[in-house]
Design goal:
mainly alpha; two-stranded antiparallel ribbon; 1% strand
């Protein structure tokens, strides 16, 4: 048992209360020091570093508003839509809570996408932060599951038919697909059983997993230290430190960055509030107009599309047609030929590459394109986990890479946004071709990264971070 710390009799009441609490629960004080007051972060953070704390803020908003919604929501196929209408019309301030939750779902993906892009351009996934990135990608995957399950709960037309389409995709998996889709639905069609399953996972199971992953993500980050726009390590063995061993290029997270983040929070809340009060549907992107119509299993909407944050991947799914399979076969054949002719693989390795390519081509031609569309849609997310080992650049930050690298990243962003837009639109011949090109570019960006990320003339990285007070 630790000895009690004494305090001066002339201390203020607040100091005495703090000392009393610290003597009885010292681990809180240690946690506060390790992760706030004595956690040194680089002093050159810019606005890109707002989005991590904003993601945490939106998570709190979603949990709090979700608790109040559950108080009045009925997870019953006959009552769910009416209970949402009851929340909107009869519960005091219920409309505000519901719109905060629905807008918060889209806001969550906005800040998470921007947070991930920050990691992409500044090399936040590079050594020693591989595990931080993997936890972050797992959070993204879990968030997608949470959003998909919550999307069914209003039991509107788009909720019902969107869930029907997405769950049916699992039936395309050979051998186990139909049974897997039946297991997810709990019935042969989306029904009351599906609603109850999704409600349970959305409210209890997935949020617990999400909270655990967020804690793991933050702890892993604080163990290795935060990255910065220069990609320079401030806590490494060769980093400059003062006599007490504190990094000269770092400042305590609290109070400097807790106050610094207030600016980001203020701007975010102004935009968030403006959307809630003036455009909660956001032109049908945040809340589709079809979802204000009760679910009708006998009436299919003319166009079924997921919410905007899923649409880039939905575009990739729709891009995989029978014609597109031949293009993918050619890509696999070219990759195998490159491995045989240009790589430094041994003779055995080259033989393995040829055999693997031949098996892949046979499977691609033998199995229905719908299944490969599901594989591509899932692979578009899974490939993010391998980014730390795909990037072969000698520097971390985009600041010190060749200028044309910035154009590659800009093209990637544009393609991703175009794919997202096409996923909302009804299928068309032109849209199909553009989405097929976009899918090839998306995967080419990552799969060819070990090659193109090493090309060009790199700028010298400074020994210490560059910082100008403002």
């Amino acid at each position: 048992m630790a000895e009690f710390k004494e305090i001066s009799p002339n201390a203020t009441m607040g100091q005495k209360l703090g000392n009393w609490f610290d003597n009885r629960y010292p681990s809180v004080g240690l946690f506060y020091k390790a992760h706030l007051s004595e956690y040194y972060a680089p002093k050159n953070f810019n606005f890109w570093y707002f989005f991590g704390s904003l993601a945490l803020l939106v998570l709190v908003i979603q949990i709090v508003t979700g608790i109040f919604l559950v108080m009045h929501y009925k997870p019953d196929a006959n009552l769910a839509f009416a209970s949402v209408e009851y929340i909107m019309r009869d519960v005091p301030w219920g409309w505000l809570v519901r719109y905060m939750h629905s807008t918060g779902a889209s806001a969550f993906f906005v800040v998470v996408y921007l947070h991930m892009f920050k990691g992409l351009i500044y090399g936040g996934y590079r050594k020693p932060r591989e595990l931080v990135w993997i936890f972050g990608c797992t959070i993204f995957l879990t968030l997608m599951a949470e959003a998909f399950m919550g999307y069914l709960l209003p039991w509107g037309q788009m909720s019902y038919w969107g869930a029907q389409v997405i769950v049916n995709l699992f039936s395309a998996i050979p051998f186990i697909g139909p049974d897997l889709a039946l297991l997810i639905r709990g019935d042969y069609v989306v029904s009351d059983a599906t609603l109850n399953r999704f409600f349970s996972f959305h409210v209890i199971a997935v949020p617990l997993v999400l909270l655990g992953l967020v804690v793991a993500h933050i702890l892993a980050l604080h163990d290795v230290g935060s990255n910065n726009p220069d990609g320079v390590e401030i806590k490494g063995p060769n980093a400059p430190k003062d006599a007490a061993g504190k990094p000269l290029d770092g400042i305590p997270f609290h109070p400097y960055y807790t106050v610094h983040d207030i600016l980001g929070v203020a701007v975010f809340l102004m935009i968030f509030s403006a959307i809630i009060f003036f455009a909660p549907e956001f032109g049908g992107y945040f809340l589709e107009y079809n979802n204000f119509i009760p679910a009708d299993p006998l009436k299919t909407p003319s166009h079924i599309a997921p919410v905007w944050y899923f649409t880039p991947y939905y575009s990739m799914l729709r891009a995989i047609t029978s014609e597109m399979m031949y293009v993918l076969v050619v890509c696999v054949a070219i990759a195998a030929a490159f491995a045989v002719l240009r790589s430094r693989l041994t003779l055995v390795g080259k033989a393995v590459a040829v055999v693997a390519a031949a098996i892949a081509i046979v499977l691609m031609l033998a199995i229905d394109a719908k299944f490969w569309g599901v594989v591509v849609m899932g692979g578009a997310v899974i490939i993010l986990f391998f980014l730390p080992w795909l990037d072969a650049s000698p520097v971390k930050s985009i600041r010190y890479r060749p200028d044309w690298h910035k154009w590659v990243y800009a093209a990637f962003v544009i393609v991703f946004l175009v794919l997202g837009y096409l996923g909302v639109q009804p299928p068309s011949p032109v849209g199909e071709r553009v989405s097929q090109f976009g899918t090839l570019f998306y995967f080419g960006f990552f799969l060819l990264m070990p090659w193109w990320s090493r090309l060009g003339e790199f700028k010298p990285v400074p020994d210490r971070i560059t910082f100008a007070a403002h």
